[in-house]
Design brief:
This protein is α/β, with parallel strands linked by helices. The protein contains 9 helices and 28 strands. Helix 1 runs parallel beside helix 7. It binds flavin-adenine dinucleotide (FAD).
Length: 401
């Protein structure tokens, strides 16, 4: 393979920026075109549901790099430039303005967008949370201490519930699951986290779908549940998962499904790679195809792709990591607890809501989760990083609750 001289990165956020920076750090001096649909410089998303929503940070703190650092990368940076098509055979990307850019290597880092409830487009008071504008809009709504209904009780919904409640909103969290967060963390930790919300006065409605958002005069004023109940609201947040941004690749010759389908090197075909939330790849350690919507993964996968473009030929096999802040608890998750068949608290206790727990599958440790135990949780990561027998791990660490 001859050395590439033109790299196009579609998506100018955590993963895309990481690709560009790593290419430069590794000595690549060719052209890097970084395409961003939004007109803002690359910014970080985790603070949107935390410090930006609560107003504890000024908005400018979300920029991933300052202007001078971005300029120093010598990029062909195009903001407000949406990629609308690609041709893998001709190695070119088309932009919304009709122009085309040729590439030797294309990195797809277009992330995901929120799933929406049908019939809510253009209804005032209905929010999703993915962009800085979304966060500003929801923050403005919270200033009026509204009756907020949150549809979907995953991490995003739970984090917003925590900020909104602290800001004095009255909050109802509606989940289609009987035990929200248990699908990811199992019943014990799921219950622990939901308990935090209940204690703070969040009303939690489980095991039911929101059928429709109700409105009057173009403004949301409640939701109707599948069982017929109506919950009145001044604002509604829809946090029911996300959809990978791959539509623009239709007819490109690049294989997509639940994301861009890549091999273990994060390569989707000759000269085509993917990184971040949009990338579905075969994790060699887990032996599974996965797609991860985690901030750390976006940066690490961006680095891995850049190095592979430059010839490293290294499979991407990270220990997935996510954190979440809810009230005064910091939750850290190393590995993938979903689907585990064994669970043990090895430090601290459920009663204290301060602990490290291990999750196993097929007698191997698959994940370690910490609640307000940052260092011990980080140490437990080692049990996930290399295959560790369940019995050996639990007898060494001990079981405390
Ligand atoms: C509110 C919120 C809170 C979060 N909290 C946490 C957390 O606590 N911990 C954690 O680990 N993760 C968290 N995440 C997830 C984390 O932010 C993502 O994993 C990370 O942003 C993924 O980066 P990315 O670059 O892959 O995708 P994105 O950040 O989605 O960036 C993709 C970029 O591509 C652009 N784009 C899309 N289509 C096109 C196109 N056709 N042409 C050009 N550009 C395009 C988009 O505008 C976007 O800027 C959170 C996410 C959100 C939204």
């Amino acid at each position: 393979m001859s050395a590439p001289s033109r790299v196009v990165v579609a998506g100018a956020s955590a993963a895309g920026l990481s690709v560009a920076e790593t290419l430069r750090r590794e000595g690549f001096d060719g052209r890097i075109t970084l395409l961003g649909e939004e007109s803002l410089p690359p910014y970080d998303r985790p603070p949107l549901s935390k410090e930006i929503l609560s107003g504890t940070w000024p908005d400018e703190r979300v920029w991933l790099r300052d202007e001078a650092t971005i300029a120093g990368l010598g990029l062909d940076l195009r903001l407000g430039a949406r990629a609308v098509g690609a041709d893998a055979a001709a190695r070119s990307v088309t932009l919304a303005d009709g122009s085309a850019i040729g590439y030797d290597e294309l990195v797809i880092a277009t992330g995901v967008r929120p799933r929406r409830l049908p019939g809510t487009d253009g209804v005032a008071g209905v929010h999703v949370l993915r962009t800085l504008d979304d966060a500003r809009g929801l923050r403005d709504a919270l200033a009026a201490k509204p009756r907020l209904v949150i549809v979907g009780a995953g991490f995003l919904g739970a984090e917003v519930a925590s900020v909104a409640r602290t800001a004095g909103a009255s909050v109802t969290l509606v989940s289609d699951l009987e035990a929200p967060l248990s699908d990811v963390l199992g019943p014990d930790l799921g219950e622990l986290l939901i308990g935090l919300h209940r204690e703070r006065g969040v009303e939690i409605i489980t095991g039911t779908l929101v059928q429709e958002v109700l409105s009057a005069g173009g403004h949301a004023n409640g939701v109707r549940l599948a069982d017929g109940r109506v919950i009145e609201a001044d604002a509604v947040l829809v946090s029911i998962g996300s959809v990978p941004n791959v539509d623009w690749l239709a007819g490109s010759g690049i294989e997509t499904g639940n994301g861009v389908l890549c091999d273990e090197f994060c390569q989707a075909g000759p000269g085509v790679w993917a990184a971040g939330d949009v990338a579905s790849w075969v994790h060699p350690g887990l032996g599974e195809r996965i797609r991860i919507e985690h901030r750390t993964n976006a940066a690490e996968q961006g680095m891995a792709v850049a190095r592979n473009i430059l010839g490293a030929a290294k499979p991407f096999a990270p220990v997935p990591y996510i954190w979440s802040d809810q009230y005064d608890r910091k939750i850290q998750i190393y590995g993938l607890p979903r689907g585990a068949d064994t669970f043990a608290v090895t430090e601290g206790s459920l009663a204290d809501r301060k602990l490290v727990a291990l999750y196993g599958k097929n007698d191997v440790v698959r994940a370690a989760v910490g609640v307000n135990m940052v260092r011990p949780a980080r140490l437990a990561r080692a049990l996930v990083a290399s295959p560790t027998a369940w019995t050996a791990a639990v007898s060494k660490e001990g079981v405390t609750a």
